[in-house]
Amino acid sequence: MRVLRSSGYSSWRARTIEDPECGEQAEIFILAMESQLRQLNRPPEGESATLKRVMQARRHELWRVRHPYRESLALRIICYFPDQETVVLALLGFNKHPIGDIWYDRAAKESEALVDQYLREQEREAEK
């Protein structure tokens, strides 16, 4: 799978890895979640223990990647599959541990806006 990273994702990733509360454990989980996406042969057809649909999303099919449970760390990466070979990695990344599942409402809205932006950019590129 070809992985595209948003600038917002890259910033979140760097901040999370440097955060003393998340640190080294976060880096290990992020690398594992990114690797899981890279190893896919196609977009998911169904949910798994680590890859689930974001049910709050209404306009675009968004997916979230998670890592195994760890106390005080709940990293999630929201992604979008625009075609059979590409994943737009991490429209958003977040440690949802402090606030829980209510984060998904906001994440879905923000991620869908980012998908719209991505699609507009792809249209502009195609017109060139």
Distance between the termini: 25 Å
| Number of domain modules | 1
What's the tally of helices? 3
Q: β content, as a range?
A: 15-25%
Shape: globular
Topology, number of strands: 5
Average per-residue pLDDT, rounded, comes to 84
Sheet with most strands: 5 strands, mixed
Unreliable stretches = none
Observed structural traits:
128 residues, alpha+beta, five-stranded mixed beta sheet, 3 helices, 22% strand
List the helices and strands and how they pair.
Layout: E1 2-5, H1 7-18, H2 23-38, E2 51-53, E3 62-66, E4 75-80, E5 86-95, H3 103-127
Parallel strand pairs: 1-5
Antiparallel strand pairs: 2-3, 3-4, 4-5
Helix pairs in contact: 1-2
Q: Would you give an account of this structure?
A:
The protein is of the alpha+beta class. The protein has one domain (2-127). Helices cover 41% and strands 22% of the residues. It has a five-stranded mixed sheet. Strand 3 and strand 4 (75-80) form a beta hairpin. Helix 1 (7-18) packs antiparallel against helix 2. It starts with a strand and ends with a helix. The mean pLDDT is 84.
Compose a concise summary of this entry.
The protein has 128 residues and is an alpha+beta fold. The chain has three helices and five strands.
